[in-house]
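Researcher: Go.
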Amino acid sequence: MQDNYDVVIIGAGLSGSVAAVEAVQKGLSVLVVEKYESVGGSGNFVEGIFAVNSYLQQQQGISLSEQTILDEELNYSHYLADSIILKDYIHASAANVDWLRTLGVSYLKVLEQANGFQTWHLFEGLGKQVIQQILLPLAKQGGAEVVTGYSVDRLNMTKDAITSIHLQKGRQQPHTISTNAVIIASGGYLNNEWMIDHHTPFQMPILPINSGHNTGDGLQLAYDVGAQKSKLGVIMLCGGTIKDLSQPAYKYRDDSVCIAAAKQEMLWVNERGNRFVDESIAENLSLAGNALVSQNRVFSILDQTTLNQLSAGPIPRPMNFGAGALTQLSGLTDEVAKMAASNQPYIHTAESITELAEQLDTPKLVETVTRYRQFCQHQADDDFGKPAKYLYDLSKGPYYAIELAAGAFCTVGGLKVDRGNAVLNHKGQPISGLYAVGNDAAGVLVGDTYGFNVPGTEAGYAVYSGRHAVDSIADLI
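Model: Structure:
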């Protein structure tokens, strides 16, 4: 390790790895610091990135305009998104897809989420392959140094400019590394329980479906040198997941019980046993997450007949995981039976709805199910207007209640940045030599809710901002 670098990148996830490759291509000396022994972080699970007018969209006959997407995002955010930065990002998106392709990244196809726009460019091998087999090896070949197990515990300033970092590994002697610029690419704070409790309004626990490494360290480094806080509290919610507090939430990502209870628009009731939403909102993961966290508790109610139907298929909403559509939940009935037999706290079973209501302490459940069954019989939801294909009669026990929580992939934002991804202070002026990318800076894209109707936006911004910050640094150097 040298004593001086043109740029130090904090975090070896998707945005940090992109920044490292861009920096060596610009001829800059680069140090990438990753506090964990493994690299990639939550970027390993990224499925694809956003773009408009890419070569792949042209091949698939997908026609979208930059203005259409810009208007959609600005309207969705109620104009809390940064119009200029968003416009820059959208305009550069196709070129970023091409740039990754020249490095060796392969794409499968372009998809939409639910009824949204076809902007999601799926990677072959997910982000793990892109980061670990392509980006970081290329960065190292270009001269970048990548160190793992080290943490940056202080940014040092001279005359209001970042001039060095304080680097620590375990009990080893700390290092002071001089640098012209620092890029914070640490991935947000979803795994910092204190920050989630203090910066979000959610009543229900948020279950992270990510690497577990995003603890807000990079944000705090910036706050310590006067950075402005921005968009704290915005989370990319991923709809419902099973409320199993004993296991990492990502274990249920493709689980058939989770898909049945949380993603097939079954009957949802709250802690009193009342319905509170048209459950077809599950098609939009962000909005479903918002609906879930508005309640203290949420239970998905199923009966044995419904489980048998979902197991045999076809399920009412096919699930597309990139490799192909999942149309039935084979083995679902056996899996639910195993869960029920294990007496897990998130699943309850009874021979009657009355008994189930007593177990859950949900006084309105019997009344709710009775009314819901009437809707199922005449195939019209008179309360919320849920499409008839999602109305299952709940006529035959045993009955099951599976408790849900809101899953989440990342926080969105925390630092305010300018058009060149420089971090701004409380007066809205750039902190010289300090930049932020990826999740730490992505508050410029959103209002209070992440837009799944334009999928791939967050991951695409990791690529855009990683490159763009380095370009700004190179211009100054």
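Model: The chain has a mean pLDDT of 94.
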